[in-house]
Amino acid sequence: MSSYPFDTATVLSVGQELECMRQSLGMKLSDVAAGLPVAFRHLRALEQGNPADLPSASRLTSVRAYAHFLGLDPDVVGERYERALRGASSA
């Protein structure tokens, strides 16, 4: 059982999906940061699966905005992330 209050595997999976899509589009993380009202360090935290490094009030908003920016379905990505943040037992 994880010592974190969230499903670490899914959080990391969402982050990796965002990172892979960004890279496949030929973008740097700084390109995304320039196009979104989300701090570079928060985008990095999303990609690295570190939700504790994000302001709790904007975690879901940030992941949805990032997904939308990359052309992913923000509802699908956001729901996966939200379920993961609720904890491994509810995923």
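the 2nd protein, sequnce then structure:
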Amino acid sequence: MALASPNALGHPRLGLIFSKKNVRRAVDRNRLKRIVRDSIRLQQQRLPAVDIVVLARRGVHELDNATVHRQLQGMWRRLEREASKSAREPDRHGTRSEDTHRI
């Protein structure tokens, strides 16, 4: 799961939260962090200027690298769509939405 909030930096930033409660072994947490960092590095030119926080769900460490990478690709596509949609559509109050989006 990921949360995203617009920033004024002109590029995406990444935060990672992989708790011991959800991913028990350090080697698994570090593997997942490496996969997420690599995925965002490859997609950063396509992503909007947002702060992204990736949260690990229980059981994610049981997935293989290719599956995690595919899920991240889908998440980045959804983020790209949501950001372009919210940039085009004003919210109910006539201003553009600056809220955090759940991906």
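Residues 2-87 form a domain with the Ribosomal Protein S5; domain 2 fold (CATH 3.30.230.10). Helices lie at 26-43, 65-88.
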